[in-house]
Structure formats: C-alpha cells, structure tokens
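Collaborator request, handled under Task 6.
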Amino acid sequence: MDEARQEDADRGRALDDFRQLEWGMTVAQVRELFGPPDGNGGSGLVILLYGLADGSQVRVGTNGRAVLYVDHRVAGQPDNRLVPRG
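Structure tokens returned to the collaborator:
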C-alpha cells in the first residue's frame, strides 16, 4: 500500500461515512466531520478531495460556503453522485 493510501486507511475513511453529508451543509461542518481535505480542486467551485482507504475518492463540491454535491470517484468509472445538487 502506498503512503497516501496508508494515511487514508489510518484515518478510517470509508465511503459510507460520507453518506451523512447533505446539500447545504457548511464547509465548516464537513471539515468538522472529516478534517482537512487531502486537496482542493475546481475552477469556480471549491471541491474538497478526500481519499479513501480503497484508493477511490470522495469529491465534495461547494461554493466555498455550503455543500452543493458529493461524488464518489473510482478510476476508470463514471462518478457516482452521493448527494445531488440542490
């Protein structure tokens, strides 16, 4: 297991943990639940990137203040929307 995936496993991050997120939650609430993201992406939107122990990724799309959507990304597959855009 590479170092980044080991760190994700050590945090105990799992996809089911992110199912509790809801449209409109604040970025502060997301950070309180999951800590700082592993990275940020997006242009216009702020996308919080969280790696999971299995090597997949949760992408929390925000406007910088509130959650707009949550996607689960597995390499080579279409994104799975966990929380739809409001």
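The cover message to the collaborator said: "The beta strands are 39-41, 46-51, 57-62, 67-73, 80-83. The chain has a mean pLDDT of 86. Please let us know whether this matches your experimental observations."
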